[in-house]
User: Fold this.
Amino acid sequence: MRCEVVAIGTELLLGQIVDSNSSWIGEQLALAGIDSLYQTKVGDNADRMKSVIMQALTRSDAVICCGGLGPTQDDITREVIADIMGVELVRDEAIVNAIRAMFESRGRDMSDNNKRQADIPVGAATIKEMPGTAPGLLCPVGDKVIYAVPGVPYEMKEMMLGTILPDLQRRRGAAAVIRSRVLRTWGLSESGLAETLDARLQELDHLGNPTLAFQASGIEGIKVRVTAKTDDEAFAFALLDAEEALVRSLIGDHVFGVDEQSMEVVILEALGKRGLTLAAHETLTGGVLATRMTAADPDMEVFKGAAVRSASQKHAGEEGAIALAALTCEAFGTDAGVAAVAAEVDETRPPGTVYLGLVLEGRQVGATVFLPGDQRRSRDYAVISLLDLVRKTLMRS
Amino acid sequence: MRCEVVAIGTELLLGQIVDSNSSWIGEQLALAGIDSLYQTKVGDNADRMKSVIMQALTRSDAVICCGGLGPTQDDITREVIADIMGVELVRDEAIVNAIRAMFESRGRDMSDNNKRQADIPVGAATIKEMPGTAPGLLCPVGDKVIYAVPGVPYEMKEMMLGTILPDLQRRRGAAAVIRSRVLRTWGLSESGLAETLDARLQELDHLGNPTLAFQASGIEGIKVRVTAKTDDEAFAFALLDAEEALVRSLIGDHVFGVDEQSMEVVILEALGKRGLTLAAHETLTGGVLATRMTAADPDMEVFKGAAVRSASQKHAGEEGAIALAALTCEAFGTDAGVAAVAAEVDETRPPGTVYLGLVLEGRQVGATVFLPGDQRRSRDYAVISLLDLVRKTLMRS
Assistant:
């Protein structure tokens, strides 16, 4: 089963938008065991779009077209697909009504242009997920298929996960089952990980199944992807379970989560289970920690708040960060408080030295880290380092 | 003059790396007035690489291959290009020595694998810039040309700017200059913009130059790209200036910035010029506003801080948001304060209704907005709506 991605939009060719959609789709296809051998970007031009989609259709079983479903004149994906299918576009009044309802729910009127979004090639189906105003399309072409999704990432993702990936799996029929699991680590370098796991990697080279792969992901740490390929789902999961246990025994508590579990979700669960609450003092980190925590805990049941203020001073030791963490506990009435502060630079403390402070039920923990790069990356690293300090302290207490 | 980009690497298809190189190259080509109509990603597979590069060569005058020049066995761009040229690879001992010197200057030994990087197709030239260990290639094929550059961004960029763009310009001879400008808007829908500018769009369809295009960018608003194509740079900028003035006269203060100017940068500049400071009350927005403002104002000279707290209540009107904005001014000692709060839902206030409050030098401004989607997107929209309220109030005061 082969599936190609065609990303549509002149703005992609001109570099005004980086095409991260194709990358995300490629990752999803790989995880689903579907080969994706080519990805093409093409501008909003009917002839060129047609030739690219036609070519993709000759060398693959399915094509995902991303973009060009908007309401304006340069959004012509609908027209091009109808041309390839050799059919007309027909306006679907039920979709017109759905689009109008979407606008009305936002207190706005639908413009006439938006009706174009309800023009559907005869023989095509609309994708049931429709989080925006652009319906996605599922267009059979002989025994192959063209999917069309909007270029807006969250709309595209909802349609991929809800309809397209399951449809591809169904079309492929019973086949090899590929399952993978991502172990998320923090605190080891990629080469450090490779050395720690070297003997096991060599064994797996001989066994051939499961496989391990590393993926450095910046402030998300390094991901270790375990992939098992079998004929049987239960056996695939058994292989994954066994390999996960083995990897964890080798790299220990550097594994902070699995698959989509972020560091903040892990911490919120651990705090929540013990009935503990957290607040943060954010001078150095400027609101980044609060943004992450409130996204994962929107009702603020565990994360109770943050004070973002300009830094009044540099600090000479971890005590400064711990004192601010303690003040934060008091101000917010929480069980735990965290703070990250910049160190005074001198011969023992290079630029980028940051002190971390944590107070957890009266217990005081400090740490010193050296953070790379510019201010923006530095504060992202400070936040993940603080969260990892909370995680490890919780695990050990 | 047409030039295509072929990005090479299985990791690109799998989504392990986002292909930002092609976007950057596309932008450089557009700025140089060279058409780039297709960009393709292909994995490390000789047959597929060959077919993609051959096809690019038939429909364009030049092809830039990015990636696959490293020292390992899956780096086969050199071999594939030699195959297309119908020539052998010959090891260039001068390049071997240059690579060895590069390693020695970093205190490391060159491995035998690295010698492969000095294998050059007969008839090809090496690109004079060589910031890493992989030499770039300039490979004539009839009257066309294939360039090969490493996938490491800074190495690729140095070769593009130093050799490839000048070579493309030379091959093309004197020709068109393309310059573009992006007007950034907030508060209009894409179709609303299209309707407002409809008459002008039709005029431009006849004139052919400059052109206007829209780009919906989520919480970054809608971008209007003006592109002028002339023989002369000064004339191109004159066209852009005239079109910008015309568009602004039609859509007014919905234009908040130009090119890379973000909403927060615009506001920080406007506040800074008047010597005013700002703080935020962040219940609904959970630190997102502080994160954006402190990223743009890292020393917090204008943006003085934020209080992130859990929401104690829903509100029945804009007065609630204004009162919190006023309290925030007092607490932080700033000239301006902002707050966004959720409305009590009833028959007149649908879910997603948010009240915005601004106090600016004692003046009180409220607004009511309906925000789409899930909580995470909703707070992004709340932040940009609040910032736009600050911007418009500053413009009118």
Observations:
- The CA atoms of residues 100 and 111 of chain A lie 9 Å apart.
- Chain A has a mean pLDDT of 91.
